[in-house]
Amino acid sequence: MGWLSMTPEGMGGHATPKAYLDAQLTYPPGKDEDREHTGMRVLKSVWSGSVYYAAAQQYTGTGEAVAVIAIVCLVRWNPRAADRYVFAYKDMSENMGPCEADCPASILALLSSSDHPYALNWRNRCYRNLRLASRKLEDGTMIRFAEPLEFTDGSKVAEFRVRKEGRRMVLTSLNGYGRYRVRNLMKLAFEIVPERKPPKTYFG
Length: 204
Prior knowledge:
2 domains; 12 strands
């Protein structure tokens, strides 16, 4: 499915993309003449600004609850858009293998088991990102990448020291010179290198 764009009027009175998508993904099952229509209900959702994640309960046409699946929507939100098309989204299920894999653990925990290869791959990527993001980096920590990172000045560096500057985190070379900004640092594979402390010297 492609992108769907709309004006504030098209959002049907919903003030935010999250409110609109929660409503769009919640609809009752029913029967029209001889045809049954499945239903869905959002159990929990989050919106980060550019991506919306939801755990959605599916229902059969007779109202029987079945699987809880993940829905991922790419979101464009610009309340001041000159053409008044303030909101656009592109939705997909986990079975489509979304590239975006930063779903919160609270939503992943609600999902039913699945044997769909794309869904399993997506869930594994989400859990991997959660594990990577949970690492704690204190000021002064030494980290090492398996492969050196290459920067615009042509330098290649594998080992860095973490420096905290308020809420910002920068990397420096081990000798303290040079400052490096690495995008999505916490999603990258690196190891924390324990510092070797010199042995204590005792004088008799």
